[in-house]
Design goal:
alpha+beta; about 30% strand; globular
C-alpha cells in the first residue's frame, strides 16, 4: 500500500502538468541551443559542423558535443525552438524525432517537459 501511495504521489503531478500544457505534445527533433539558435550555425542545423567534421559525424553527436561545450538541450519543431526546462535524461534522445509533453510557456518559448517520447524512424 505504501508503494502505491508513493507512486500516486509521484505520477499525479506529472499527469497534471501534461494536462495543463499541450495535451497533444509538440513534435520535433532534440537538438542543442548552439546549432538551433544560430550561435555557430548559419542555417539552424548541424549540417555545417558535420560537413567540417568539427563537432560530430551526425546530428546526435554534434548536439552532444555542443551541450558539453555549454549549450543546452532544445526541441526544434519546424522554425520554432523551444528550450527544455528539465535537462535530465534528454541526451538519450539527441538528434532524434520526439514528441514532448509538458507545460508550454509561449512567452519564453520554454517547455517544462514532463515526458519525452521517441517517434521511431519518422
Amino acid at each position: 500500500m505504501k508503494k502505491l501511495a508513493i507512486s500516486v504521489f509521484i505520477c499525479l503531478p506529472v499527469l497534471a502538468l501534461c494536462a495543463a500544457g499541450n495535451s497533444n505534445g509538440i513534435e520535433g527533433e532534440i537538438s542543442d541551443s548552439q546549432c538551433a539558435l544560430n550561435v555557430h550555425s548559419l542555417n539552424r542545423s548541424h549540417a555545417e559542423m558535420i560537413a567540417k567534421q568539427t563537432l560530430g559525424t551526425d546530428a546526435a553527436s554534434c548536439a552532444r558535443a555542443c551541450v558539453r561545450r555549454g549549450g543546452e538541450w532544445v526541441l526544434r519543431s519546424g522554425e520554432k525552438v523551444y528550450r527544455l526546462k528539465n535537462q535530465a535524461g534528454v541526451e538519450r534522445f539527441s538528434g532524434k524525432k520526439v514528441k514532448v509533453f509538458g507545460l508550454l510557456d509561449s512567452k519564453t518559448e520554454t517547455i517544462d517537459n514532463a515526458i519525452i517520447e521517441g517517434l521511431g524512424n519518422r
